Each structure stands twice: as C-alpha cells, then as structure tokens.
Amino acid sequence: MVGSDGVLPLPWLAPWLEEALRTQRGHAVLIHGPQGIGQWQLSLTLAQAWLCEGGQGARRPCGSCASCRLVQARSHPDLLVLIPEALQAPLGWTLAESEGEPAETGGKKQPSKEIKVEAVRGAVAFAQTTPAREAGKVVVLHPAERMNGIAANALLKTLEEPAGNARFILSCSAPEALPPTIRSRCQAFALPLPEAQAAAAWLAEQGVAQPQVVLAAAGGQPLDALERVREGLDARLWQQLPALMQRGDATAMTGWPIPRAVDALQKLCHDVACVSVGAAPRFYPAQALPRQAETARLLAWSRELARAARHAEHPLNAGLAIEALVARAQRALATPAPERPARRSVSVHSAG
Predict the structure, then answer these.
(1) Do 171 and 288 share a structural domain?
(2) Number of folded domains that form the chain
(3) Domain range for residue 304?
(4) Which of 191, 175, 333, 166 is nearest to 249 (CA)?
(5) Which residues, 6+ apart, have CB-to-CB distance to 4 below 8 Å?
(6) 2-25: buried (b, 16+ CB within 10 Å) or exposed (e) per residue?
(7) Same-domain check for residues 272 and 172
C-alpha cells in the first residue's frame, strides 16, 4: 500500500494501478500473475485508492488523507481482508486485521492454508452493512484460489448481485484454479513479470548482492528473490550449486527446507535439459551448467522430482531426504560414457 509519502513500494506496479483505476468497471476485480511479483501489494493499494478521500484531482491513493492513514494502520472500518490462517504471519496481518482464525500456538494442528467458507460468509455479511465512511466497502481475498468449492459458491451470489457500494478484489497466481463462474464475474488484470533491469535495481536497493543472479534463481520474481535471500540464499552458492550436485555434495543444502531443495533441483534439471539441446538456461548461469547429459536420465529425474514436489510438505526427515535428492541428482548429471565404436564382423570363408 502507499505510505504517507505517496510512493508505491513496488515501482513496476504503478502502470497497473493506473490501468485498474482508469478502466475499472463493475464491482469485482481479479488481479493475477506469476507468484512473487506483487499481486497482494497491488490489491491493497487498489483498495486504498478506492477508499481514498483525497481532494478532487489528487492522485489516488494520496497516502495522507484520513482514510489512507486508516488503511496504513490496518484499521479501516470499511476494508476487510480475507487471507488463510497460514499466511497471517508471512503477510503481517493479524486476526484483528483479517477475517480468519488465529494460528494454533500449541498442539499439532497446522495453520489452515484455505480461505474458509465461514470467512467468506462473514465477508458477504460485511458487504451488506452500511459503510462507516463515504467511499463504500472493499473486500480483498488473497490468494483467491485458496477458496474451496463451498467458499467460492458462498461468494458467487454476492458477485452476481452486490449489495450497495461494495467492491471486491480477488488476487491470485493461479486463476485457472478458480471456478469459471467466479472468473466470469470479475474484470481481470493480468500482471506480467517486471522487466529484469527494474526488478534487479529494486533488489539492489534492498541490499541484495548480485541481484541479477538471485532474480534469475527466483524465475524473475523479485519478491520471491528477496524472500530467498532473507532465508539465506547466497548468489555465489547458487552459481556453484550445479558443480556441487555433480559431486554429490549435500552440504550445499544443509538447513534447506525440502520444498526449497526440490525447487532448486527442478530448476537445475530444466536448465541442464535446455543447454543439452542448445537452448538458453533460465535459472542458472550458463557457464555453471554441465554441457553433456543423457536425455533419458534427465527425463527420469524430472519425473522423480515432480513426485518429490507433491510430497515435499510431508513431515519427512529433511537431512535424509535432501541426501537422497542430491544422490539422485549426481546420478542424473553424471557425464555420459563415450560411445564404443561398433565392432566389425569378420566373415571367414573356406577356400575351394
């Protein structure tokens, strides 16, 4: 969201905010794009702009009016944010600021990753009440694909026939996971990856060393890149990772969560396959990748990594799991044995 200085925290979102404000029609907006480029931030900023009470002709959101300050303080009476319980801490929104349930502090219950039907029904009721201020009410759902079928159905009727001056912002990275009936009732804004130069410059401003390397490691998604750096990703280690995997050195991934290790290996498999057929790699520097690899081995490895990704969140022993993943990577990246020359067959004919 915009602070008191009126500056967007993610500069590449500025044209999309202007586009949404200029062309927005109806009462529901769907903001989608690759994960880690700012859908959440754009959704909050758009909500802030809709609720802004700046004077006529003022840039919206102005960041300094009473309504903007309430949004900044996350206490605006006409703004409701629906996020899964598991995202409250990562996004910095507590129970008082979002419609969800507090994360469990004891026991073995894991925080929910879904937007529950009870929360959606609460949002529908919220939208039907009289707004406290003049600009109407706004409901933000992020990530919208986390609604299960029952929750989506509970929202559908309100999207068809909204009450009063209520508006909805749905934010997601997988719009295809939403029911078609939900998508068809929203005006969609598809966010592309930001330009690499602008994203790398922003990462450098955040104190990231070798931002181009880290940005490539995150697939061009700057927010994911920054999160990886904060989790301990080192640009130099990333460049060395292909060689370390060829040697079977599992210490390179010491302390990594299993999903992160699987993700790094899937990207390595992708790039090695690209280089083996003469294409440019996407995630790793080209000079760091092995030049020769057997296609059959890479295909088998890719399938195994896909299976590992489906179970990466299971409560496995991380150390043992990563050792197994690295050993498998070493076998897949082994230099192919040179082809043996074909043996000539010698025919012996009897004389006479």
Answers:
(1) no
(2) 2
(3) 234-332
(4) 333
(5) 63, 64, 68, 69, 72
(6) beeeeebebebbeebbeebeeebe
(7) no
pTM of the predicted structure, to 2 decimals: 0.86
Q: Are residues 184 and 239 in the same domain?
A: no
Domain boundary pick from 136, 160, 190? 190
As given in the structure block, the two tokens for residue 114 are 């879904």
pLDDT digits (tens, 9 = 90+) for 54-85: 876 667 899 999 999 999 999 999 999 999 98
Q: What is the largest CA-CA distance in the chain?
A: 114
**Residues 125-183: tens digit of each pLDDT:** 999 999 999 889 999 999 999 998 899 999 998 888 877 789 999 999 999 999 999 99
Same domain, 160 and 264: no
> Considering the domain boundaries, does residue 208 fall inside one?
no
The answer to whether residue 4 sits within a structural domain is no
Strands in 79-82's sheet, in edge-to-edge order, are 79-82, 137-141, 166-172, 28-32, 187-190
Query: Strand, coil or helix: what is 350?
Result: coil
Cβ(47)–Cβ(19) under 8 Å?
no
Per-position DSSP letters for 135-178, written without gaps between them: T-EEEEETTGGGB-HHHHHHHHHHHHS--TTEEEEEEES-GGGS
Residue 275 main-chain phi, psi, to 5 deg: -65, -35
Q: What is the CATH classification number for the domain harbouring 134?
A: 3.40.50.300
At 49, phi and psi to the nearest 5? Answer: -65, -40
3-class secondary-structure state, position 29: strand
